[in-house]
Amino acid sequence: MSDEFDPTAPDPQTSHQSDPLDELLIFGSLETRRRFLKKVAATSAAITLGHRLIGLSNIQAANVTTANNSNTMVDVQLKINGAVHKLRLDPRTSLLDLLRENLQLTGSKKGCDHGQCGACTVLLNGRRVNSCLTLAVTLEGDEITTIEGLAKRDQLHPMQAAFVEHDGFQCGYCTPGQICSAVACVQEGHAKDDAQIREWMSGNLCRCGAYPNIVDAIKQARGQMGGALS
Length: 230
Description:
Strand content: 5-15%
CATH architecture of the largest domain: Roll
CATH class of the largest domain: Alpha Beta
Number of strands: 5
Distance between the termini: 111 Å
Shape: elongated
Strand order of the largest sheet: 2-1-5-3-4
Helix content: 40-55%
Order of helices and strands: HHEEHEEEHHHH
Largest sheet: 5 strands, mixed
CATH superfamily of the largest domain: Beta-grasp domain
Number of domains: 2
CATH topology of the largest domain: Ubiquitin-like (UB roll)
Radius of gyration: 35 Å
Oligomer: single chain
C-alpha cells in the first residue's frame, strides 16, 4: 500500500534545512551549527592541553622540590638512651618521627601531634618535652631518654614497676608518656602531695581515666627514686 509507513524515509519535520532565524534565536548570531560545534571542539582541546601543561609543570616543580630537599639534609649526632646515633635528617623532622620512623623506638606515641595530649613525652636532659613539637636537629649534645631507656636490662625503673603494681593504665597508649612525665615530675620535686602531682601531670591525658592509680603509682615510686632519674 502506498500510504504505509516507511521507516527509511526521511522525517519531514527534521529533514528541512536550518532557518537563519532559528540560528539567530538559538546562537544569538547568524552562525551555523557547524561553526559553533567547531568552536566548542577547539575550546575543549585547548582546555585539555592546558591541563596537561599544568600537570607537567606541577611534576617539574615537585622534582625541583625533591632535589632541593636532598640538598638541605643535615648531619646530626644524637645521644638517645645512652647510645650515639649519627644521622642525616631533613631539618623539619620532629624528634617523635625520628624515634618512631628512623630508629624504630616506637614506645613514644603520636596522639595528637600538636603537643596537647602528652603521649609523646620523652626526657631531655632529665626534663620532659613533647617530642612531636621538638626538632631533632636542635638536640645535638643533649641526653635524650625515651621509655625504652628507663629500664636497666631486665630490671624495670621504679616508676614502671609502680605503674604495673597500681594498674596505672588500661589501654596503655598514653602510658609511655605518662611514665616519662611522672619520672620528671618526681625529679623536679613536684610530687609532694596528690594535688601537686595532679597539677604537674595535667599535661598528660588518659582517655581511660586511670588518674587515681597514676597518682598512687607516682607516690610509691617517689620514695624509691629519691628524686633521681634512675
